[in-house]
Amino acid sequence: MWDALVQGPGQHLVLHWLRMLDHNIEDLAYIDGKRAGRLAILKIQGQGRIPLRSMGDGLTKLFHIALAAASSPNGVLLVDEFENGLHWNVQARLWDALARAASEHNVQVFATTHSRDCIEGFTAAVKGTEPEAASIYRLERKGDDVLAMELPLVNVDAAMREHEEVR
């Protein structure tokens, strides 16, 4: 997917997102690894080239979400457990960036989470958007069935302020 984005707007989107976590990132390239095929390498100001995987789970997760978002114009993006590997204080910025990218590239995003911080970041990012532009659904088990219950964003925001359970 990266090769298809190189030198285009998708590459800039991915690098912009990576810079949300580390502003010293200058570039990303793939090289042929000795054992595991191609290896993602970051060029970092003042540090040279460093394997992406050595930068931690958060940056790696951010890269994969950005790469998938940039590669999915007019499509669908599925993100399981959005918050995994991402510090809570980055999540609102990532949600904001993802909402903008989804709107600009006509991408429908479905994400799962168990995290209250993640839901707070999502509601902050979509505040002020059109009501149909974003939704939260809570999955609830009723006997053998799993039901999707829509939670209106205005209610979620109020529930979060009152410390009620929304996950």
What tags apply to this protein structure?
167 residues; alpha+beta; Rossmann fold; 2 domains
Can you put this structure into words, describing what you see?
The structure is a single chain. This protein has 167 residues and is an alpha+beta fold. The protein contains 6 helices and 7 strands; from the N terminus they run H-H-E-E-E-H-E-H-E-H-E-E-H. It folds into 2 domains: 71 residues, no CATH class; 94 residues, P-loop containing nucleotide triphosphate hydrolases (Rossmann fold). The strands form 3 sheets. Strands 1-2-3 form a 3-stranded antiparallel β-sheet, covered by helices on one side. A two-stranded parallel sheet has the order 4-5. A two-stranded antiparallel sheet has the order 6-7. The longest helix has 18 residues. It is elongated. The mean pLDDT is 84.
Taking all Cα atoms into account, the compactness measure Rg is: 18 Å
Shape: elongated
| SS element count, helices | 6
Secondary structure class reads: alpha+beta
Question: Order of strands in the sheet with the most strands?
Answer: 1-2-3
The CATH architecture category of the largest domain equals 3-Layer(aba) Sandwich
CATH superfamily of the largest domain: P-loop containing nucleotide triphosphate hydrolases
Helix content: 40-55%
* C-alpha termini separation: 33 Å
> What string, H for helix and E for strand, traces the elements in order?
HHEEEHEHEHEEH
- Mean pLDDT across the residues is 84
